[in-house]
Design brief:
single chain, 275 residues, alpha/beta, 5-stranded mixed barrel, 6 helices, 9 strands, 24% strand
Length: 275
């Protein structure tokens, strides 16, 4: 059996050879229904996940399953068009493997996006929310069973999981582009079903502002490997347990798509101005 370190080396070497010396500064993992930022780039390479050693396949129909290398005003960016989820049946190590590969490729900053349900009554459909902290309710942990010190500290500190510098730059970018960027705490659950009224009340009572089914595993590994990260949620449905209405995935995708233009503008401003 090939260990994770060997897999990371093999995959990163494959991509470095493909990219012919182009070293990405930013890595971006795009969430459900989100992807407009890719249109802002001059695409250098596009690789299907099926071609990449040790990558699993995105089974969610709204995730394209491509890895893009692109350039924006001289800065090289690596984009995952579609992430992996625990509810798809993958292990936590498979879900977070691309983060380890990004670190091995000398990516300096990691940006993540997701579609989330808004439990904070101040959040409305289409809002962009900067994640200031999170609550992990996923049923497994990507660091479980890993004792190889080359992968990073087993007992990874999570006192400040999101980069203070990146968050400040995102707030500045939002002000520069006149985009309203709210702030909140994200809770990650397994899914794929949405929550009941009682579950929304419970999640809200523990301090969460929005709920989703991703992001936190990648952030844990980013902290383990020392990769600064920031995450933005697009609020796609309002989860008021006293006025809860059924929601279809098509509606979630439509709301995410409408807000995606704002998110793309925010990413662009951040990247071109980041020092």
């Amino acid at each position: 059996m090939i260990d994770i370190s060997a897999k990371v080396f093999e995959t990163s070497k494959f991509l470095k050879d493909k990219f012919a010396g182009q070293v990405p500064e930013f890595g971006i993992i795009m969430g459900t229904g989100l992807g407009a930022f890719a249109a802002e780039l001059d695409i250098i390479q596009s690789i299907d996940y099926t071609e990449i050693p040790h990558f699993v396949q995105s089974t969610v129909e709204f995730h394209k399953g491509k890895l893009l290398l692109g350039k924006l005003e001289g800065k090289i960016i690596l984009i995952m068009q579609g992430r992996f989820h625990y509810y798809e049946g993958y292990s936590m190590q498979e879900i977070t493997f691309p983060v380890r590969v990004m670190k091995a490729m000398n990516v300096h900053q990691l940006l993540l996006s997701n579609a989330a349900g808004g439990m904070n009554p101040d959040f409305k459909k289409g809002d962009l929310v900067l994640t200031t902290d999170h609550i992990n309710l996923q049923p497994d942990n990507p660091l479980r069973s890993l004792s190889d010190p080359s992968l990073g500290p087993r007992f990874t500190d999570m006192s400040c999981p999101y980069s203070v510098s990146l968050d400040a730059s995102l707030k500045a970018a939002a002000a520069e582009t006149n985009i309203i960027l709210k702030e909140g705490i994200y809770v990650s659950v397994m899914g794929p079903n949405l929550e009941t009224r009682a579950e929304y009340r419970w999640l809200r009572s523990m301090g969460a502002d929005m709920v989703g089914m991703s992001t936190v595993p990648e952030v844990i590994v980013a902290n383990q490997v020392g990769l600064p990260c920031a995450a933005i949620s697009v609020i796609t449905d309002e989860c008021d347990p006293d006025n809860l209405k059924p929601v279809e995935i098509a509606e979630i995708i439509a709301v995410a798509g409408a807000a995606d233009i704002k998110l793309a503008a925010l990413w662009k401003q951040l990247i071109v101005s980041y020092q």
